[in-house]
Amino acid sequence: MANSSTKQYVDIEVTKNKFNNEINEFTALEKNYNERGVFLVEIQGFTLRLLFTAPQIKPSPVLFSVELDYSNWDFEPPALRVINPFTKAVLRNNEVGVQFLQWNNEAQDAQSLLVGHDIPFLCIPGIREYHQHFHHSGDSWMLYRTRGEGKLTDIIEKIIKHATLPLVGYLVNVNGHSIVFHKFPLVSDKTKAP
Prior knowledge:
25% strand, two-stranded antiparallel ribbon, single chain
């Protein structure tokens, strides 16, 4: 489960205490998160796996899982991968099946927060891949480290807001004909920035 390319160089006891704080914060809110369709399904070392569903849709679909690697937390932000909830395989961009959208006031349109040509990453501060990407070379993790970004509860709230909460129904394609069950907007007021 853990990303084998991540080397633990921060004192393991420091990371362990900080990681346990993240798990304890989640546990205190776990009932609320479960009701909102988020389930902590596995912890292995400093890596955890969350399952996301859409309880506002009936029947409620299983959408995706994310794997968060908190190695070297909080000297480094967590790494995030979107994975298949059944096989645990890392999903390619065209396999995710759910859009992660944020309203862009300047463009007056929604922009995807899940970017990358092959293996996507969540393009928000507080995610390791964001801070390691060359487009964000001037946006150091150290600017965000004490502001709450990268915390487990912050990441969960952002995924709910931008990926699961906007879903309001099913869009089914049968022999090339789309059938809409309820409304299924690409963007709702819930994904717009305040």
